[in-house]
Amino acid sequence: MNIGEPSLELHQKHRGKIETKSKVPLQTREDLSLAYTPGVATVCTTIAEDKTKLNTYTNVGNTVAVITDGSAVLGLGNIGPEAAMPVMEGKAILFKEFGGVDAVPICLSTQDTEEIIKAIVAIAPSFGGINLEDISAPRCFEIEERLKQILPIPVFHDDQHGTAIVVLAGLINALKVTEKELGAIKVVVAGAGAAGMAITKLLLSAGMKNFALVDSQGLICKHRTDLNQAKANFIKEFSGASAFCNPSCPITRLADVIKDADVLIGVSGPNTVTTEMVKSMNEKSIVFAMANPTPEIMPDLARRAGAYVVATGRSDFPNQVNNVLAFPGFFRGLFDSGAKKITNEMKIAAAEAIAGCVANPTPEEIIPSPFDKNVAPAVAEAVKNSII
Asked: What angle do CA 361, 371, 366 make, to 5 degrees?
């Protein structure tokens, strides 16, 4: 089905997807004097005297900034800030629809790391949280880490952590279906960008022991001399964690690494996984092929090759790994709890909550529908309860 033209028509008809509405009446002279001048002056001076009152008297505490530089938009690449706006508007309506969180799309006309950080810090007082979106690796890692150190509000890069949370949720149920344990299986993550590294780190926090992270050149390991800083830092942090790496490290290609693996998580590119690779995996193998719109291997081919559970990033196949299952409820929980920082415990709790929304997992249903109204409240509650 070609949905391009209908989508253009929808966006043209409504001139985008978001608008501003008033919460209060503006029908009388008194309404105006209370909402704006002169009454609002008292509100301003109250906040000036005690900045903690900001969330009491404004909507800041329920508002997230959805920020991009347009450098890595969907599967479209570096298309710039203007072309990124439809995606940011879309993200904003998902925040509101599923989490009751107000969101403002912001597209920055710079791809300089320092300028991006400076701009976000400058506008941060207007928001209760920052959601970074579609910023290319490896810059996204430094931007997020620096902002987390500077800002007194939660900073979340959805391409990394939203994806990782939903992958872990799906994997929790996939392991139930296949009767396997996270600490005893072999996991291959194909794609070492923002999502791939975040997924690997979260799975390690959740109990994964045996893994391989692979990029287009092969296995990410201490013997590689061509790694960018983000990948090199990853190796330093998790040196020795991968059982696929050994002193001579002869295994480099994905086709070699995937042999006898139990799980393949693909966040790389289209058609990078063959049926022969899937056939070489262990029995009851699990394949998450999430490249969009064309996955690493099409679900029907993966199943015919022996995969027991298959998930993708597409909505036209079962088990869609969709970030909308995570970020609206995650921010709802952050805002409701007043949390200032995001922890791995929150992410794992969110993943377990998402997984728990599938009462009886099957190979065809390990992830709840994005329209399941129980998911966001469950995630919000899990995030709040994870705070010590």
From this structure: 15
SS3 101: coil
Q: What is the DSSP string of 173-229?
A: HHHHHHT--GGGSEEEEE--SHHHHHHHHHHHHHT--EEEEEETTEE-STT-S---H
Q: Is the torsion defined by CA of 295, 300, 306, 311 positive or negative?
A: positive
- Neighbour-count burial of 72, counting CB atoms closer than 10 A to its CB (0-12 exposed, 13-18 middle, 19+ buried): buried
Strand 155-157 relative to strand 263-266: parallel, antiparallel, unpaired?
Answer: unpaired
* C-alpha–C-alpha distance, residues 245 and 249, integer Å: 5
The phi-psi region of residue 74 (left if phi > 0; otherwise alpha if psi is between -120 and 50; otherwise beta) is left
Written as one letter, the residue type at 364 is E
CB atoms within 10 A of CB 294: 15
Listed in sequence order, the residues at least 6 apart from 3 whose beta carbon sits closer than 8 Å to its beta carbon are none
Domains and CATH numbers, the chain: 20-157 (3.40.50.10380), 158-388 (3.40.50.720)
User: Has residue 242 got a pLDDT over 80?
Assistant: no
**Residue in the structure block whose two tokens are 């079962």:** 318
pLDDT tens column, 68-100: 999 998 878 899 999 999 999 999 999 999 999
Q: Which residues contact 339 (CB under 8 A, 6 or more apart)?
A: 154, 333, 346, 383, 387
The pair phi, psi for residue 73, each rounded to 5°, is -90, 120
CA distance 216 to 208: 23
Burial of 377 (0-12, 13-18, 19+ CB in 10 A): middle
Active site residues: 36, 91
What is the structure's pLDDT at 388?
65
| 249 has a pLDDT exceeding 70 | no
**Is residue 221 scored above 90 in pLDDT?**
no
> Other CB atoms closer than 10 Å to residue 47's CB: what's the count?
17
Q: How far is CA 27 from CA 24, 51, 61, 166, in A?
A: 10, 30, 27, 45
